[in-house]
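Colleagues,

For the teaching module next term, I've prepared a clean inverse folding example: a structure given as tokens, and then the sequence designed for it. I'd like students to try predicting residues themselves before seeing the answer, so please don't circulate the second half yet.
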């Protein structure tokens, strides 16, 4: 569990998007896995320190100091065991006590929930911990992490979780390959695209999720359903009729597998055979000029 150069960049980006880091809870204590000069460069670019600052910054240690630079006055952590000295001990497979609800302005999962077997309870716990107008930030495995944890997740799952029916709205979702100078791709909602957002590529890839709590609601009172089944087949179609089903486009790229997918990655297609309509490359400029 930890924040590498991409994770730090994404949290700085969330700060730019006016996420309130006043009271932070991290799921597991987060380490900082980057070099000091990399952290310094990004802090200068984000305007959090002056270019001529002589301050030193601890890396390869826990991230509380960095979180305080983002504005945190409270930096709590929650884990199932005390081996990393988390401030709270609780097994996320089990519901949290009600008195812990709505205590934090942001909850950050930097790579923990894929290790929790009872994921619906775990994510529900995270959502309940957030105050109204607060935020959830997730950096989680999306592809080619087989064996890393119990799960790797799809964009559809998080779009259906952080929806108005649960009192949330999705602010941003990005997809990126696990490499030092990653490119970031904004991922669109399958419900609005009216087709599945799929990807087969050759490298381990992450999802970044930024969602805001808009009102207090009972989470999962309405059980999430995959959008193409719920909103197209069931509501517009007639059972087995094909008239209401999502048509998946078969492109030449989509048929490439194995060494050919890897070749596409090396040629500058880190998203492999993802539908170009479902992902959009963006420039995460920490100076605030994002496009």
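(Answer key — instructors only)
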């Amino acid at each position: 569990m930890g924040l590498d150069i991409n994770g730090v960049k994404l949290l700085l980006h969330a700060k730019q998007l006016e996420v309130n880091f006043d009271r932070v809870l991290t799921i597991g204590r987060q380490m900082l896995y980057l070099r000091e000069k990399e952290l310094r460069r990004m802090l200068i670019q984000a305007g959090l320190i002056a270019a001529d600052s002589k301050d030193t910054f601890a890396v390869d240690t826990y991230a509380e100091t960095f979180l305080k630079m983002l504005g945190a006055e409270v930096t709590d952590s929650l884990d199932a065991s005390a081996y990393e000295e988390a401030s709270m001990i609780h097994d996320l497979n089990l519901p949290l006590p009600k008195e812990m609800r709505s205590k934090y302005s942001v909850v950050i999962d930097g790579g923990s929930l894929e290790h929790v077997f009872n994921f619906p309870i775990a994510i529900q716990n995270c959502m309940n911990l957030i105050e109204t107008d607060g935020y959830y930030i997730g950096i989680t495995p999306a592809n080619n992490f087989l064996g890393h944890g119990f799960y790797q997740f799809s964009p559809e799952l998080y779009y259906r979780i952080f929806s108005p029916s649960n009192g949330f709205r999705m602010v941003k979702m990005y997809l990126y390959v696990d490499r030092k100078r990653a490119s970031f791709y904004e991922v669109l909602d399958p419900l609005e695209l009216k087709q599945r957002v799929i990807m087969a590529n050759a490298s381990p890839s992450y999802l970044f999720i930024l969602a805001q709590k808009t009102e207090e609601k009972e989470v999962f009172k309405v059980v999430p359903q995959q959008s193409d089944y719920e909103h197209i087949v069931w509501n517009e179609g007639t059972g087995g009729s094909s008239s209401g089903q999502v048509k998946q486009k078969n492109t030449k790229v989509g048929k490439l597998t194995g060494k050919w997918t890897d070749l596409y990655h090396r040629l500058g297609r880190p998203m492999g055979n993802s539908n170009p309509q479902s992902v959009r490359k963006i420039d995460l400029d920490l100076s605030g000029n994002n496009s």
